[in-house]
Specification:
Length: 190
């Protein structure tokens, strides 16, 4: 997962590469906001909840096959499904998806047959951009991401992330250290 800024939002982007010689099968994505309804779905794509190019300012999910060939992936939206394209966006505090693929040809690399889009030989390579979740800029929470492929034997590659956690700048840490030294000095004088 990478955390970045996208327009007026914070973006959580998820990437996956199957094991060598393995085929991607499915993943579970569970995002829980600790600060309320911060998960956004601001701009609907014409395709709905998935994005073939994998770069929309949107909350979406893909498989490698849907990224390459524009076919909607199979899915189960357990806790939250983005609104239809004609509806206004509604933020939520929980997103829980199961996205899976029954299509062949979405392992670590695939011959797309299109040397123009994927130079020099028409090969598109992992890691695949599987999902993007937009969050309010001040949102904080946790993410569990489990990915499966044909070599996993039903055991996922499991990842847990915290988002919106700010790491203090070195200057802030230095000031905190000086304050602690000063406080210790005051206590020792007493």
């Amino acid at each position: 997962m990478t955390e970045g800024t996208l327009g007026a939002f914070k973006s959580l982007d998820f990437f996956y590469s199957a094991g060598q010689g393995a085929e991607f099968t499915n993943y579970n994505l569970d995002v829980v906001s600790a600060t309320g309804a911060d998960i956004q779905d601001p701009i609907r794509t014409s395709a709905g909840w998935w994005d073939q190019d994998g770069d929309a300012v949107d909350t979406w999910a893909n498989t490698p096959f849907s990224l390459l060939f524009g076919t909607a992936p199979s899915s189960v939206f357990q806790a939250y499904k983005p609104n239809a394209p004609s509806q206004s966006p509604t933020p939520t505090a929980h997103l829980q998806w199961e996205i899976f693929s029954t299509d062949d040809g979405d392992g670590n690399s695939i011959d797309t047959g299109d040397a123009t889009a994927h130079p020099p030989a028409g090969i598109a390579n992992a890691p695949w951009h599987l999902a993007r979740v937009l969050i309010s800029p001040t949102g904080r929470g946790v993410v569990n991401f489990n990915a499966f492929d044909t070599s996993s034997g039903g055991v996922p590659s499991a990842f847990a992330f915290a988002y919106g956690v700010t790491v203090p700048e070195p200057t802030t840490l230095s000031l905190l250290g000086l304050a602690m030294v000063g406080l210790i000095g005051v206590i020792r004088r007493r």
